[in-house]
Design brief:
27% of the residues lie in helices and 39% in strands. It is globular, with a radius of gyration of 15 Å. The longest helix has 15 residues. It has one domain: 3-Layer(aba) Sandwich (Aminopeptidase). A hairpin with a 2-residue loop joins strand 3 and strand 4.
């Protein structure tokens, strides 16, 4: 699969929203993406992976004062299981290192075992739990708070973590 990486633009938001609405129980709305794109100068990064011209995944994160927070990382459900989540996460880590980030944080639904496995395999550690953080079909679901100490991360000559 030939993949292209590039920054997310305002003109991408409609296509991103289609994926967001299919992939999440409580999807972000248009203004959330537009606001993050507009905040690039304030430390936000919005990034896409495309297969040819079709968006297949995206991520949004923010960085400030040596910390970054992964706000959204999503792969089109039709394309999951192909390593795109790992590829996006690798981009997030490399970008964070380029911003002199020391610790990368995220929250993930406690029931999202695929995501928990991915994050743990990349070196993230569970550092907390936010009770009833996410709305769910059964009421509320806890969020696992995870952190990655980027001082422990090395990137080899081929760009692999």
């Amino acid at each position: 699969m030939k993949l292209l990486h590039r920054p997310m633009l305002d003109t991408d938001v409609a296509e991103v929203l289609v994926i967001e609405n299919v992939a999440h129980l409580n999807p972000w709305n248009e203004s959330a993406f537009v606001d993050c794109i507009a905040a690039r100068a304030k430390g936000y990064a919005c990034h896409l992976i495309l297969h040819e011209t079709r968006i297949v995944g995206y991520t949004v994160l923010s960085a400030a004062v040596g910390e970054a927070h992964l706000l959204n990382i999503t792969v089109d459900p039709e394309c999951q299981g192909q390593g795109l989540g790992r590829r996006l996460l690798r981009w997030v880590i490399v970008w964070s290192l380029s911003q002199s980030v020391q610790t990368l944080f995220l929250e993930v639904r406690s029931g999202n075992l695929a995501a928990l496995t991915l994050y743990e395999s990349a070196g993230f550690k569970r550092i907390g739990l936010r009770r009833d953080y996410y709305p769910s079909l059964l009421g509320r679901e806890d969020a696992v708070v995870m952190g990655l100490d980027l001082a422990q991360i090395t990137i080899n000559e081929s760009g692999e973590i």
